[in-house]
Specification:
The protein is of the alpha/beta class. Helix content is about 45%, strand content about 15%. The chain has a single domain, classed as Glycoside hydrolase/deacetylase (TIM Barrel). Strands 1, 2, 3, 4, 5, 6, 7 and 8 form an 8-stranded parallel beta sheet that branches. The protein is globular and about 50 Å long.
């Protein structure tokens, strides 16, 4: 029997700005986006919650934040970069579990039942953050956690800088310990992941080509769609015009055609759970 190719297309940053929220919802209603993760400390959190209630086909998870924005526990600003976060962790300045649990709790109290977890800037690659995320997954019965290790891609075919490709290859060294921690807490991941190397640099053509590379089993594709409006242009992020390009790719009929040709089936995390 031929194994199914199941693809969760998951957008980060729901709740970041209203124009990002609008793009995510459009990609779900009129395109191929199946899931997103919500920032509990995002400036447009309430707007995202409202849109989530109006979008029953959009599978919602938690985008746990430790870089950028403010803590829900202390109200203090988070570190602005990964090195600053690692330094703060080394000094014991962050209440990791309490902060992440507070973010999940805010989402629950807003009436959203999350099905999956990931972290802003992939901070759960850091061992102490991974441990806290795994505990949150277990304690709140949110079983799915992102595995941020890209399956191999041809850098030339997708316009991936060699430095990004080397970083992705280096991260794969961490997979054994990463999965060991998640397994110990009863967490689940998809079989495969894609999106780290092509973030901010793909259009319709690259997404069409990617559909031919989706392997058998379950895969999460991380995306960052949005409308590049005034709020996003003023926001502290390098991903601005690229979000509009990603949105257009997620809406393109050519991508759906490529999925059909290569037998790629759109699913949600909730849908993966129902197949057990």
């Amino acid at each position: 029997m031929i194994a199914r190719k199941q693809l969760v297309i998951n957008a980060d940053d729901f709740g970041f700005t209203p124009d990002v929220n609008a793009g995510i919802v459009e990609a779900n209603r009129h395109g191929i986006l199946t899931a997103t993760t919500l920032m509990a400390n995002g400036e447009a959190f309430e707007d995202a919650v409202r849109l989530a209630g109006e979008s029953p086909s959009l599978d919602i998870g938690c985008h746990l934040v430790l870089i950028g924005g403010h803590s829900l526990v202390t109200g203090k600003a988070f570190p602005k970069s990964l090195p600053q976060l690692l330094a703060a962790l080394a000094r014991g300045e962050l209440q990791l579990y309490e902060e992440l649990a507070a973010q999940v709790q805010r989402i629950l109290e807003a009436g959203v039942r999350p099905s999956h977890l990931d972290t802003h800037k992939h901070t759960h690659l850091a061992p102490p953050v991974l441990e806290a995320v795994a505990r949150v997954s277990r304690d709140f019965s949110i079983p799915w956690v992102r595995r941020p290790f890209d399956f191999p891609l041809d850098p030339g075919q997708y316009g991936i800088p060699r430095s990004k490709n080397w970083t992705s290859a280096a991260l794969r060294v961490m997979r054994r310990r990463f999965h060991s921690v998640l397994s110990a807490h009863g967490c689940r991941t998809t079989d495969h992941f894609a999106g780290f190397q092509i973030t901010g640099r793909f259009h319709t053509r690259e997404l069409v080509e990617l559909m031919s590379a989706i392997p058998p089993g379950s895969t999460e594709l991380m995306v960052h769609p949005g409308h590049c409006g005034p709020a996003l242009r003023a926001a502290p992020t390098r991903l601005k015009e690229s979000r509009q390009a990603e949105l257009e790719a997620l809406l393109a009929p050519a991508v759906r055609d490529a999925m059909a040709i290569h037998g790629v089936e759109l699913v949600t995390y909730a849908g993966l759970s129902s197949l057990d």
